[in-house]
Amino acid sequence: MTRDDVIKQIGNLRWTQLQSYLIASGWADYGALGPFASIWHHADQSDAQVLLPTSEEAEDFLPRLADAVMAIAEFEGRTTEDIVIAASDRFGDVISIRVVHEDVEGGTIPAIDGVALNEKALELLIAAAMSYLTKRQYHQRPTAVTNAFLDTLRLGQTTKGSYVVNLFALMPEPPIDQPTLQDVPMTNNVISNLSSGLKALSHAVSLKSKKKDEHKALDEAVAAGASANMCDALVGISGRDKSRAVEISITPLRPGKDRPKPVKFSFAKEKVERLEKASAYYRRTYTAKNKTVQGYIKRLDRAHGEKHGTILVAAVVENSEKMVEIDLGPRDYKRAISAHGSDTEVRCSGDVLIKPRSATLLNPSGFRVLNSGDGLFTQEEEPKPKKAKR
Description:
Helix content: 25-40%
Number of domains: 3
Shape: elongated
Strand order of the largest sheet: 5-6-4-7-8
Oligomer: single chain
Number of helices: 11
Largest sheet: 5 strands, antiparallel
């Protein structure tokens, strides 16, 4: 690669962008070299040096900027193209999603599937972000932190090779006065979580053994970042007919020599079918956090001699009708008996353990009985203590 070749690669790269890259990579500014450049050394290797041009008015600015890119590439053992891409837009990683089938060999895809592919590609990253924060079989909705990560994603141009969608994970701009990038971990860790989740899922759906062993592998995959959401995204990427194989490649372009190596995960049509079953398995039992259950009591159950008891409430949870089991203390159970007798709705809050045909309210709190008069939930008044007789 000649200097002229690198100058062509540089395009609109600014020296300030390369300066940000140097800071993020652990280089330190050792001062100005005249009015047109600054000297940079690496913290781990003091004899490593980069001369960064700082004046675009200099006649040899572009050749010197190319020299700086070449010096960084040589030190990090990367291509100059990687350095230019990483510095230009602070791209931390590239996630390439490729579908393989005879109907996409020409580099085109049916429009409906193309739109869905982009949507499901984003859902795959959403799943990775949610499972990075909380390991769970099924995630209900993105959090504010997840949405903040999504704001760092950029959709790149499609590339040749069946049909490929590229997503770029941007890294935050580093403060000039700090030698390290404090805000990178969220981006880096989500992508690492995506990688470990895909690896675990690929292993789990590759097993041809007893269901017990398959389920064990799927359960273990959750700790690595897998979830029903991740399975659904991969199945969706394969198309409406689930006929296309799916390949996910992760190429780290983040600064520094200690970046992870590129990885690729392949899901043939047979694996896609198993991913659909894996999603169904994950969704069989999961916990919906901070829910309010409202409905009519269908059954009362209290053991002989006990004051506390259990009620079954017909309610809609997660857009599905469920019979929700709620354990109540003596006082609330007494209220439940009254509500059941008068055919009045009740309300209670907590986490809901959702199963295929039933649900259980965990840590129930705030039990209320609906006031049929005004439609508001009101808790029955405490009986006033009787005045002591004098």
